[in-house]
Design brief:
single chain, 5 strands, globular, alpha+beta, DNA polymerase, domain 1, Ubiquitin-like (UB roll), 154 residues, five-stranded mixed β-sheet
């Protein structure tokens, strides 16, 4: 039985096993490279996407869990030619070293900024506390989020 949902603003459906992690469907079936496999346990944040306005770990969500809902990946926030304000802030702050965790950081930050458009540095740190970065680029992430917030991202 097909599972239908909206992906980055367009209707899609999949015949994947309903228990298949959303991450695998996004990457393997829809060829999206934004969400990344990190830990497979929902602990690192590399696979973060939005379901509705909520940031979720797509490695831990079965594809059946998003039936009828809106799913947004990094690719749905902007394009290389027209990045979102938040994506551009990450570019401007050079907020990536290896870049593996950047998708999750941006997606977590985008959901956070919708709830709190004028955060303090401490609130940003709290919002990103469960997204892991092995390169130690956290200070640049914080600067990028503050830059985007100052430009009115909500």
């Amino acid at each position: 039985m097909a599972i239908s949902f909206h992906l980055n603003g367009r209707p899609v459906s999949t015949d994947a096993d309903p228990a298949t992690p959303l991450l695998y469907v996004l990457r393997d079936e829809f060829q999206l490279n934004g969400p990344r496999f990190g830990c497979g346990l929902g602990q690192c944040g590399c696979c973060t996407v939005h379901v509705g306005d909520e940031a979720v770990r797509s490695c831990s969500v079965p594809v059946a869990g998003v039936a009828g809902q809106a799913v947004t990946t990094l690719e749905g926030l902007g394009t290389p030619e027209h990045p979102s304000v938040l994506q551009q802030a990450f570019i401007d702050e050079q907020a990536a070293q290896c870049g593996y965790c950047t998708n999750g950081m941006i997606m977590q930050a985008a959901a956070f900024l919708k709830q709190n458009p004028h955060p303090t540095e401490q609130e940003i740190r709290q919002a990103l506390a469960n997204n892991l970065c092995r390169c130690g680029t956290h200070l640049r992430f914080i600067r990028a989020i503050r830059r985007a917030a100052a430009q009115g991202v909500s």
